[in-house]
Amino acid sequence: MFSKPGSSMHEISPSSLNSLSSRVSYLKSFLSFTSEDGAALQASAPLVGPLVPTILDAVYTKLLSYDITAKAFVPRQPGYQGDVPKKVLDLNLNHPQIVHRKDFLKRYLVKLVSNDDWSDDSKFWEYLDTVGIMHTGVPGFKHREKRPELRVEYIHMGLLLGYVEDVVVEAVLGMDAIDSKTKEKVTRAFNKLLWIQNDLFARHYVVDKDSGTRPRGMEATKALGLCHMVLLVVRAGSITTG
Predict the structure, then answer these.
(1) Rounded distance, CA 168 to CA 38, Å?
(2) Gap between the Cα atoms of 96 and 48, Å rounded
(3) Does 161 score more than 90 pLDDT?
(4) Are 187 and 172 in contact (CB under 8 A)?
């Protein structure tokens, strides 16, 4: 990303967005995510930490209140060795498999406020990107390489991020121990960070003609293949009738 001499307009090559560091650089620039935002997130760790159990319960209560989101937790989850539920209605906050998933989200939330490297090449962004990949069904982490595909569609991931943000913002705004300026810094930083995470989900689910990216996962590959076949049939029919 660069600007022409004498111009305030940034030039972005669409193909450069295939590079994670270049993409993150663009996202940070557009959202004005700065080192100050990173510092605000780090400083919020002692405040957000005690709220994590409440946040986890709120998030999973929401996820289990809809069958379309709860069904993702019926199959055996990555790294879980215990009994699995037979149906959606067997799930609750205390089910061992849900407790296992809550632990993953707990580690994720801790990472959001404990990172100390916000550079474009930071391993932190690789972690957020891998979280996006693994929900497409592709084994983003090594422990998933020989496991069955577990895919969660993008609509649910986007909604989850929105809900997590709302829960965190409400919690921060309700804190009596910090002043309004600090609350503003923390909530704005969380907002920017979760929108970056949103893109690092979306890039693995959508077709981007300009940058040449394609959705990941077996189901997405099948769907794209079917669309391609339909287009070929339509074009062949047009040629024949023409």
Answers:
(1) 16
(2) 25
(3) yes
(4) yes
